[in-house]
Amino acid sequence: MTTVRQAIDDAHRHEWARVLAATVRVTRDLDLAEECVQDAYAAALAAWGRDGIPDRPAAWLTTAARHNALDVLRRAATLRAKLPLLIEPAPGPVPPEDPLRLVFLCCHPALSPEAQVALTLRVVGGVPTPDVAAAFLVTEPTMAARITRAKKKISAAGIPFRMPSPAELPARLDAVLTTIHLLFTTGHTAPSGTALTRVSCAERAIELARLLVTLLPGEREARGLLALMLAGHARRATRTDEAGRLLLLSEQDRSRWDAESIAEADSLVVSALRGGRPGRFTLQAAIAMLHASAPAYEETDWPQILLLYDELAKVWPSPVVALNRAVAVAMVDGPATALTAVTALEDDPRLSGYRYLPAIKADLLRRLERFAEAATAYEEALRLTDNEAERTFLTGRLTEVRR
User: Fold this and answer.
1) Which of 7, 132, 324, 378 is the most buried (most CB within 10 A)?
2) What dotted CATH number matches 1-80?
3) Closest among 125, 127, 107 to 117, alpha carbons compared
4) Strand 192-193 relative to strand 386-387: parallel, antiparallel, unpaired?
5) Which residue numbers delimit the DUF6596 domain (predicted)?
């Protein structure tokens, strides 16, 4: 039997963005809408415990949040001024694309790219402010102030809650794709906490990408992004063991991967690769599919993956791409060649504080049996990691190389 707590957790995981988007339609104010939705979830705990779990939890929460918003507006003596706005959001079906409107609102070009991502993670993804701060390597008060400024800027500028026009889309789409991908990566590997993953964030990102593909079927990169996330999420059940210990790709039980998601990702990649030079999300998806379709780790097509990384580096010359390419280099040309490439990246300020750089370096040194240097690199990776599953894995490797 589903408990009230489970029902609320499920509603938070699957419906948060939809309820929030419906409330933004009433308030035209992100900050106020977020408060009203939080109050609705809090009220559900008592009401559902007393009256039973409603048949349609999302509708209950949407109605409660709307009522909260109207109460606030009345108390502020602005109801009369807001009446024209209140006509539109009368109780009824919420447009399915509303969560996507919310993402476009958060990713408006009036905001800096950093503010766009931070606001989307917090507002749409429901990621706690301390975790958003950790992702940006800033303090929690700094991030809270940044998010508040972004909300005020949206309100002060009167940025409308709507999808961009076809003429506006090309300039807006990349920021939205990038932000949805960051929301997914935050869920794929949580920046902090005891669990390796934060499934709600990953599923929310996939849902948003599905909406994007439905609304913009001609956008190949939207299909590439959805394929990339599906291929990664298909492995979620095997990325840790029953004790929560992180399992490497080579250790995972491929028979437990989600074959349906992998097949869907494969179809999306094939269609996204047609029609011209692929973009960065499509190329990443193609790499992910080579991993997902290999019958065994030893049968992975590393030379083809390396070629795809070469293409990816041309369209997206990111130091993170260069670092991931080094992993493929290690499999094709050996760890010594890869170590040279990784060492060259250590001077790049964009990777300072990026935990995977020392972690990859440590692994290459371990494979070269340079154990003392590997230990130093593992210690550095541990210093930068707040996720307990990753810390346990790195601690195990550190113990191994110190023997």
Assistant:
1) 378
2) 1.10.1740
3) 107
4) parallel
5) 172-272
Q: Which of 161, 164, 165, 122 is nearest to 25 (CA)?
A: 161
Residue 134 and residue 386 in contact, taking contact as beta carbons nearer than 8 Å: yes
Both tokens of 17, joined, read: 């963005």
0.70 cut: is pTM over it?
yes
Indicate the domain borders of the chain. 1-80
Q: Which residue has the tokens 């957790």?
A: 9
> Is the pLDDT higher at 80 or at 262?
262
Reference 228, options 171, 275, 286; nearest CA is 286
312-347: pLDDT as tens digits: 999 999 999 999 999 999 999 999 999 999 999 999
Longest CA span, the chain? 74
8 A C-beta contact, residue 97 and residue 207: no
R_g of the chain, CA atoms, integer Å = 23
Both structure tokens of 186:
């935050």
**Cβ-Cβ contacts under 8 Å for 69 (sequence gap 6 or more):** 23, 26, 27, 32, 33, 36
Q: What is the distance between the alpha carbons of residues 274 and 377, in angstroms, rounded to a whole number?
A: 42
